[in-house]
User: Fold this.
Amino acid sequence: NGAGKSTTMRIALGVLAADSGEVLLDGRPLDDDTRRRIGYMPEERGLYGKEKILDQLVFLAKLHGVDGKAAKKRGTELLETLGLGERLNDKLDDLSLGNQQRVQLAASLIHDPDVLILDEPTGGLDPLARSEMVDMLAQFMVEEGRTILFSTHITSDLERIADHLHIIGAGR
Assistant:
């Protein structure tokens, strides 16, 4: 805790400015266009508890430039894939913590990003839900050939999914 993981992710996303150095994606500095290729799942829940989950996914997709009809289709498909197809009109607060985390994952995927940045995606989940989340992330990486950068304190999650490991301490 306090090593700088979340701060590093926020710098990569352009939410915070770096004191020095630069962040590159495919060898290019990040700008608004390249940031649209990134999906982000923050450690803290960023969705609205009283709103329907599909409505929120559509809204987020539109913010990334996806048209409404395509956003609704993609959101429905994601929720079905994540085992929430029957819950798409439920409010987020009506879901278990594990299912809320699945919705957070769907929100990070709604605009079909090339890269996912996930801050403690398994934090607070019970062992079964954590295992399912890691399996979903592995499927996303292997089947779709995408890059995931995620932080965790749980080394068993890393052993199941990671190709590369970087340890951050004191912001380095």
About this structure: The radius of gyration is 16 Å. The first strand starts at residue 24 and ends at 25. The longest helix spans residues 127-144.
